Amino acid sequence: MSTLKVNAITDAAGANGNAITLASDGTCTAKITNNLSNRNLIINGGMQVSQRSTSANAPSSGYATLDRWKFQINNGTITTSQGSTAYTDVPYKEGHRNYLRLLNQSGVGAASNQYIQTDYHIEAQDIANSGWDYVNSNSKITLSFWVRSSIAQKFQGFLMSQDGTSYIHPFEISNNGSNLTANTWTKVTKTFGGNGSLTINNDTGSGMRVSFTPIYGTQFTDNSISLTDWTAISGGTYCRDMTTTWSTTTNATFDITGVQLEVGSVATDFEHRSYGDELARCQRYCVDFPVSSQLGLGQVYSGSGWVQLPVALPVTMRTKPSVTKNGSYWFNSNVGNAGHSGDRTVTVENPSPGAHMYRLFVQAGSNAANAVTVWCQIHDAAGTYMRLEAEL
Predict the structure, then answer these.
(1) In terms of residue numbers, what domain contains 301?
(2) Residues near 2 by beta carbon (within 8 Å), at least 6 away in sequence
(3) Is residue 38 part of a domain?
(4) Which of 31, 170, 237, 368 lies in disulfide reach of 335, CB 3.0 to 4.6 Å?
(5) 37 within a domain of the structure (yes/no)
(6) pLDDT (mean) for 228-256
(7) pLDDT at residue 130 tops 60
(8) pLDDT tens digits for 338-356?
């Protein structure tokens, strides 16, 4: 029996570094492109989950359609939607059935103060506990994603730290330095080292932001900004100058899917998770109660016409959620034999940390008798809902 003694194993060209590196203590490290679990720091990177809506006009700042993906726009109208890939699309063949689309409804223009972006905020503790030594320039994280534009041009993106002094690391969205080919999916991979000035708290706040920008006006760009290191944000500069063809073209589209951020210098295969697993991760930040949802039994208290309603949540939310709702007759309660429906006020009791159940205080009606048991449900009118949100 013989033993092969080497320090490393690499391919013949050796251009991408060692595939396996062996240490003197008998251990080794390897660049493995198998589908390892729990390495993608992005939730809903495959664009499967869309609790709020599958299509909406992007707000000036906020969440509108696909879970965990926030939008910002200075002026104009952008439609954001969940699209479906076709069999002929390369991402489809790799298991991606959905994508996020930004559609430029009317040519939002190229003013110097214009910006359009979609952002993903990563909870700080997910970065802090990921294994990335973010203050070490030799420790790497790798971002990979599929992108498609109806316009043949380059775009910009950036990572931004959110704790302490904010630092930014821009990157180019292109086809190996050239314009994206119109209406063609392109795989983009970017690797980032750490920086001694970065601060990432081990808490439930936003620790880092990943942003994709179809347009940033010249007020926010500077061609001198580094694409190879982190830079303290100064004077509102976020990326390099951008071509404005997309922003001035009516019905131009920008699509992304398969977004993965992982520790290491190699982009491994996308971590496909089941819909149920992805939904549960999203519900840490948003729980949607759609039309006709049964909220359960509550009790009128103190003769005030308010109902104390315990609501169990599918997962522990990041923090105390806010309540949003829609529809003029969205809440329906029955007190004894009397029905009460209408646009009711709802508040959330301040819970203990890590609460898995909340008490909602729901305005049932002035004639609701004290201590009477109340059955509550979302009204069955189209478009009504109640939503608990604990977004970053």
Answers:
(1) 286-389
(2) none
(3) no
(4) 368
(5) no
(6) 96
(7) yes
(8) 445 556 677 787 666 666 7
pLDDT surpasses 90 at 69? yes
Instruction: Indicate if 277 and 177 belong to the same structural domain.
Output: yes
Structural domain count, the chain: 3
* Helix, strand, or coil (residue 275): helix
**Same domain flag for 20 and 69:** no
Query: Model confidence over 55-64: pLDDT tens digits?
Result: 999 999 999 9
What pTM, to 2 d.p., does this model score? 0.89
3-state class (DSSP) for residue 276: helix
Cα separation, 163 vs 158, in Å, equals 16
Beta bridge partners of 262: 142
pLDDT value of residue 182? 98
Contact in structure between 72 and 48 (CB atoms under 8 Å): no
Q: CA 125 to CA 132: how far, in whole Å? A: 12
DSSP string, 195-229: -TT----SSSSEEEEEEEEEEE-GGGB-TTS-SSS
Torsion angles phi and psi, residue 237, rounded to 5: -90, 125
Tokens representing 340?
């009460």
Structure tokens at 160: 């931004």
- Order across the sheet with 338-342: list the strands: 338-342, 331-335, 373-378, 294-301, 306-312, 357-363, 346-348
Q: Are residues 250 and 304 in the same domain?
A: no
For residues 166 and 307, membership in a common domain is answered with no
70, 117 in Cβ contact below 8 A?
Answer: no
What percentage of the chain has pLDDT greater than the value 70?
86
**Which helix (H) or strand (E) is 338 found in, with range?**
strand 338-342
Average pLDDT over residues 185-190: 98
Tokens of 211: 């942003």
Residue type, 84: S
Whether residue 229 is found in the same domain as residue 365: no
- Same domain for 307 and 165: no
